[in-house]
Amino acid sequence: MDLSNKHIIVTGAKGGLGACVTQALLTANAHVIGVSRSIQGSDFPHVRFSAVSTELTSRKAAETLAVSLRREHGSIDGLVHLLGGFEGGKLVEETDDSTLDTLFSLNFRSAFYMIGAVLPLMKQQRSGAIVAIGARTAVEPAPGIAAYSASKAALISLVRSVAVEANDHGISANVILPGTIDTPANRAASPDADPAKWVRPEQIASLVVHLVVENSSQLTGAVIPLYGASL
């Protein structure tokens, strides 16, 4: 899979999954613009990697970033939106407004703003690929994580809406629904679980690269489950 001369934005590039996705895109010869609060160029010492340390909590911040990157690189060929957060342990009636606002800001609003910022530029190019990371619980809810699941379900609806709206402009939009991802953070949080049943970050990264390379209206609007061995 070759992404030579393609400029791909990866939000949340410094996280456990983000690092793996970033490396996979670099291996596919893409120029990766990694976006995160604390990311630095030294995190990925590669000639085709650029780091942008910023927040994506407002529409203005996302639009400013997209325009700046388009001006600097000439094109925005893909957006891989990995930015998100998790908080659980409370039933619906126990969930406070702060938790609800935080999860919808991280998991939905950031995607809404960032996708909305790159779409006009991609439409001008008449090409582009958008990939977002949802969660299995968006379609298979579990007790105690209603706010998280709802925020990821909203993300699915957003991506499918974008696929319909942008299809005539040569833009694809797809969302991956992983089960529990085998990251150091998840292993620490669930020391008694069997990580062999979890999804390896490399599996997700490989699928992301495929979706970006495909960049075709023939593969858009898909909600792709990737559950590992925990079916």
Number of helices: 6
Structural class: alpha/beta
Radius of gyration from the alpha-carbon trace, in angstroms: 17 Å
Order of helices and strands: EHEEHEHEHEHHE
Q: Main beta sheet: strand number and arrangement? A: 7 strands, parallel
CATH superfamily: NAD(P)-binding Rossmann-like Domain
- Overall CATH architecture: 3-Layer(aba) Sandwich
Which residues form runs of ≥5 with pLDDT under 50? none
**Averaged pLDDT, please?**
93
User: Which word captures the global form?
Assistant: globular
> How many beta-strand elements?
7
Share of helical residues = 40-55%
Distance between the termini: 29 Å
CATH C-level label: Alpha Beta
What would you say this structure looks like, in words?
The chain is α/β, with parallel strands linked by helices and 231 residues long. It has a single domain (7-226), classed as NAD(P)-binding Rossmann-like Domain (Rossmann fold, 3-Layer(aba) Sandwich). It contains six helices and seven strands. It has helices at 16-27, 59-73, 97-125, 146-166, 184-189, 201-214; strands at residues 7-11, 31-36, 49-53, 78-81, 128-133, 171-178, 223-226. Strands 3-2-1-4-5-6-7 form a seven-stranded parallel beta sheet, with helices on both faces. Strand 4, helix 3 (97-125) and strand 5 (128-133) form a beta-alpha-beta unit.
